[in-house]
Amino acid sequence: MEFGSVLFDAFMAPLERAGLALRRRDLVQRASGRVLEIGVGSGANLAFFRRTGIRSYTGLDLEIGGRTGRRIRQRFPDAQLVVASVEELPFPEASFDTVVFTLVFCSVDDPEKGLAEVRRVLAPGGTVLFLEHVAPLHRPWRPLFDAATPAWRRMAGGCRLNRETVATLKRAGFLVEVRERFNGVFVSGVAACCADTA
Ligand SMILES: C[S@@+](CC[C@H](N)C(=O)[O-])C[C@H]1O[C@@H](n2cnc3c(N)ncnc32)[C@H](O)[C@@H]1O
């Protein structure tokens, strides 16, 4: 896991330099209150959270290695580290004011179930901050991404190249504001709960 986390950072470094890190910063600095980060990975977002306005930070992933754990504790000494799937969040309803996920829902086996759980644990008036890679925005590329997905999924820890996460968020009842689409496959935005309870 430690090796995987180092490898992931090395793989991502050119993308981070090319603008992904700036997008992370713009997104996660909006987090406030009780914050849940889903799929913390190697902790690439940690440096960008503001210290003020965050009452608590909970980092969740299927696995949390020592390197990531140390990074989290450096940033948030009182952080809660939780090993679980977003598909079955071990928290009561309305536990968090902000839920953050970046580059996660490409890998979640059941995104509908995961987003229903996000909705359940989000407090009324809470905010979801997301940055995901999705099916290509330029539709003619779509068949290529569909064809490449099975092989990529095996090589890249279950990652799919053809997810429609914005549409899935909307189907889960979120009111979605897409803030940016970039590099053809990335989308970032803010979502609030909920279209059917507004
Ligand atoms: C590509 S990494 C992204 C890590 C980090 N969020 C980032 O932006 O660099 C995807 C992360 O999502 C996690 N993940 C995948 N499926 C998950 C699930 N069902 N529940 C929670 N985390 C999950 C993986 O373990 C991995 O750490």
Number of helices: 5
The oligomeric state of the chains shown is single chain
Measured distance between first and last alpha carbons:
42 Å
Cα gyration radius (Å): 16 Å
Q: Strands of the biggest beta sheet: in what spatial order? A: 3-2-1-4-5-7-6
Q: Which CATH-level-2 architecture? A: 3-Layer(aba) Sandwich
Residues in helix, %: 25-40%
- How many distinct beta strands? 7
Poorly predicted residue ranges:
none
How much is the average pLDDT?
94
Order of helices and strands: HEEHEEHEHHEE
Report a brief summary of the structure.
This protein is α/β, with parallel strands linked by helices. It contains five helices and seven strands; from the N terminus they run αββαββαβααββ. It has one domain: Vaccinia Virus protein VP39 (Rossmann fold).
Helix-strand layout with pairing:
Elements: H1 2-28, E1 33-38, E2 54-61, H2 66-75, E3 80-83, E4 96-102, H3 111-121, E5 122-133, H4 142-155, H5 165-171, E6 174-182, E7 186-193
Parallel strand pairs: 1-2, 1-4, 2-3, 4-5
Antiparallel strand pairs: 5-7, 6-7
The chain binds S-adenosylmethionine (SAM).
